[in-house]
Write a structure and sequence with these properties.
This protein is of the alpha+beta class and 257 residues long. The protein is 31% helix and 23% strand. The protein is built from 8 helices and 10 strands.
Length: 257
């Protein structure tokens, strides 16, 4: 019986290597004769390992791990000092250690470059949008010139940002509870009239608004604010439809990329 020297309690014995080989061979769907062939041994020797009559020499461990796609820790039932290291990875590491230093340098450089390429492939794709610092009035006159205050920022590509053209901050609380002071809204440029019942960004003179478009005017969602109506001589332009919001943390400037 194996005892824990600190508690004197019996410990579970380490699994027999033969049992481990049998289990992973079955999991991988490898026939006994095929594994024996891969290891360069006879089927009789492999059968002797699996039944526990004999054990493989420790020098065979890396080869066994590689063939079964497991780590040495999994083979011997011990804690893995490098979690997730497979038998194939351990073989590569063993081969690497046999290289002269100048070759290790080139291998390390190649791996570093491959990691960079892999990271680039998995990095979220970013797209440019036009950001307007002074934003849309939601109960407060913005007093900005829509045509001249935009700057290019970069955001992660999503279905919403792909449809958007502009980003505006919201000023005021007339569009609560849906849009709050400081929220950033995504606006899709409209070349035709927007349907009633949609929230849009509008410009009147040098003022921009975020409002609900209805037949009788521009409505606020907050009932404390009046509907904006305009006479026939007043020019009201539709900037675009509000299609969503974005977090300030999602915005990246060119110098941050």
């Amino acid at each position: 019986m194996i005892l824990d020297l600190h508690t004197s309690k019996p410990l579970s014995p380490l699994p027999e290597i033969g049992e481990v080989i049998t289990r992973y061979r079955s999991i991988r769907g490898i026939r006994q004769k095929d594994l024996a062939s891969a290891l360069g041994i006879s089927g009789k020797v492999l059968s002797s390992w699996e039944t526990g009559r004999t054990r493989p020499d420790i020098s065979m461990a890396p080869q066994i791990c590689h063939a079964l796609g497991i780590s040495l820790a999994e083979l011997y039932g011990t804690d893995d000092p490098v979690p997730g290291l497979t038998g194939h990875e351990e073989t590569l590491l063993k081969d690497y250690r046999t290289l002269p230093d100048n070759m290790k340098h080139y291998v390390g450089k190649m791996i570093h470059e491959l990691v960079i390429v892999s990271e680039d492939q998995h990095r979220p794709r970013r797209i440019p949008l036009l950001y307007f610092e002074h934003g849309l009035a939601a109960g407060v006159d913005a007093g900005t010139d829509f045509q001249q205050k935009g700057s290019t920022v970069w955001v992660e590509e999503t279905p919403e940002t792909r449809m958007a053209d502009y980003i505006f901050p919201v000023n005021g609380d007339s569009m609560e509870p849906d849009y709050h002071e400081g929220d950033l809204v995504l606006v899709r440029k409209q070349s035709t009239k927007m349907d009633y019942g949609k929230v849009g960004a509008f410009t009147v003179g040098n003022e921009q608004y975020i409002k609900l478009f209805e037949p009788d005017g521009l409505h606020s969602l907050n009932p404390a604010f009046r509907t904006l109506t305009f006479g026939p001589d007043e020019n009201v332009y539709l900037i675009g439809e509000v299609i969503g919001t974005i977090s300030p943390e999602d915005i990246v400037t060119l110098d941050q990329m």
